[in-house]
Write a structure and sequence with these properties.
Dihydrodipicolinate Reductase, domain 2; 6-stranded parallel β-sheet; 11-stranded mixed β-sheet; Alpha-Beta Plaits; 3 domains; Rossmann fold; alpha/beta
Length: about 450
């Protein structure tokens, strides 16, 4: 049987890694797919640039439109990133009857509904395993391996940069700015790290995971997003003293009123496996009603790790090329006419426990005022720690852990506490999840 010809858009880190994996494992990939996979063409801005892969076996072009319109190319692999040119090229490829494999989480999270509708219309597949958690096959696990389950919730460390920073703050005693500079020097963070440290990258990925887990449309704009820039080394230390670790989590949860979609710093018990995922590694914990909690761990980025997911998608596409389009596994795990209209809850309606760090004047009665306000907002306290006054200052950090409470109640209580004359700084609030009580 003749090989399937592919065109690659982008020969950066992931594109180069994909070429290398296809070349290095060609025999094994052919055995698994049932047909060979042959790179016919690749698009790149600079055809003369040195690369991590050998490009001598296929033609290079600087015009990506040439690939999406080439009649001999069966599958287009989109690895250029962004959601403008990439969207244009992917929609053109679909209109030309070509299957698409992409590692582009922003493209799927923001424009996926449009792209999947176009793919269904033209009878082609769009595969996107590499868009979430690099080499971890989390999309396939939820879409296929857990298809017999009603997914109740998932929580994941799905951005390696943020995890690297928080791990260094804990293990090396450094502050956020120091660890961010270190991550940039190591190549883990971009010169503009906003997408990573503010949670936007993780929100793209969580949007995709939630759609597959719960059978809802992609709704990136409704995902609550909060970054890690305000986390101090003190917060990391206090969390450890209380038996918790701070992780930047993406959390999607099915509750009676709808779906929670949120990315934010989170305290989790230090004994949880997820709390011990360090450095740039990723992990996703998924709770199904039949299987219970399952954990997926591995490299969330990197040339070969992400290429592993890209090539796995290529193998799936090749296997399914002769399948009736009406009987293929749906893009978002559920048939298009079976997607749910469950609402995504506004953050005010989410219920969780909280860690509060309050900077207060060191005088009698302050703690009583704070606890009185919390009680009036129906917020129950689990633990309180009052630290020693800071050297040369008449103020003390007060650390409070609460039981589960509605976010709106907590927001109102924080606003009232911050108005007290004895409170010297904005309150640091970090949500707390136990990940085993639901």
């Amino acid at each position: 049987m003749k090989p399937v010809k592919i065109g690659i858009l982008g020969l950066g880190t992931v594109g180069g890694g994909t070429v290398n994996v296809l070349s290095r494992n060609a025999g094994e990939i052919t055995r698994r797919a049932g047909r060979g996979i042959e790179i016919a063409m690749a698009a790149t801005r600079d055809t003369g640039k040195s690369r991590i892969c050998d490009t001598s076996g296929f033609r290079l072009t600087t015009d990506p439109h040439e690939i999406v319109s080439a009649p001999d190319i069966d599958v287009v692999v989109e690895l250029i990133g962004g959601d403008t040119l990439a969207r244009e090229l992917v929609l053109a490829a679909i209109a030309n009857g070509k299957h698409v494999v992409t590692a582009n989480k922003a493209l799927i999270a923001v424009h996926g509904n449009e792209i999947f509708a176009a793919a269904q219309k033209h009878g082609v597949m769009v595969a996107f395993e590499a868009a979430v958690a690099g080499g971890i096959p989390i999309i396939k696990a939820i879409r296929e391996g857990l298809a017999g389950n009603r997914i109740e919730w998932l929580a994941g460390i799905i951005n390696g940069t943020g995890n690297y920073i928080l791990t260094g703050m804990r293990d090396q005693g450094r502050d956020f700015a120091d660890m961010l500079a270190d991550a940039q020097a190591q190549g883990y963070a971009e010169a503009d790290p906003t997408f990573d440290v503010e949670g936007i990258d993780a929100a793209h990925k969580l949007t995709i995971l939630a759609a597959i887990a719960f059978g809802i449309p992609l709704q990136f704009a409704k995902t609550y997003t909060e970054g890690i820039a305000r986390i101090s080394h003190d917060d990391v230390v206090y969390a450890e003293e209380l038996g918790y670790r701070i992780k930047h989590l993406g959390i999607a949860k099915r509750v009676a009123q709808g779906i929670e979609l949120r990315v934010h710093p989170t305290l989790i018990p230090e004994r949880r496996l997820l709390a011990n995922v360090d450095g740039v590694m990723n992990a996703v914990l998924v709770k199904g009603d039949a299987v219970g909690p399952t954990l997926y761990y591995g490299a969330g980025a990197g040339a070969d790790a992400t290429a592993s997911a890209v090539v796995a998608d290529l193998v799936d596409v090749v296997r399914a090329l002769t399948t009736d389009p009406e009987n293929r596994v749906p893009h978002l795990a559920f048939q298009a006419d079976a997607l749910s209209d469950l609402p995504v809850l506004p953050m005010d309606e989410v219920e969780t426990a909280y860690y509060l760090r309050i900077e207060a004047v060191d005088q009698p009665g302050v703690l009583a005022e704070v606890t009185h306000i919390l009680a009036e907002s129906t917020i129950s306290i689990e633990a309180i720690i009052q630290k020693e006054p800071r050297e040369g200052e008449n103020r003390v950090p007060v650390i409070i852990l609460t039981h589960t409470v509605r976010e709106q109640n907590m927001n109102e209580a924080i606003a009232r506490i911050e108005q007290l004359a004895t409170i010297t700084a904005p309150i640091m609030r970090i949500r707390l999840e136990y990940l085993n009580r639901e």
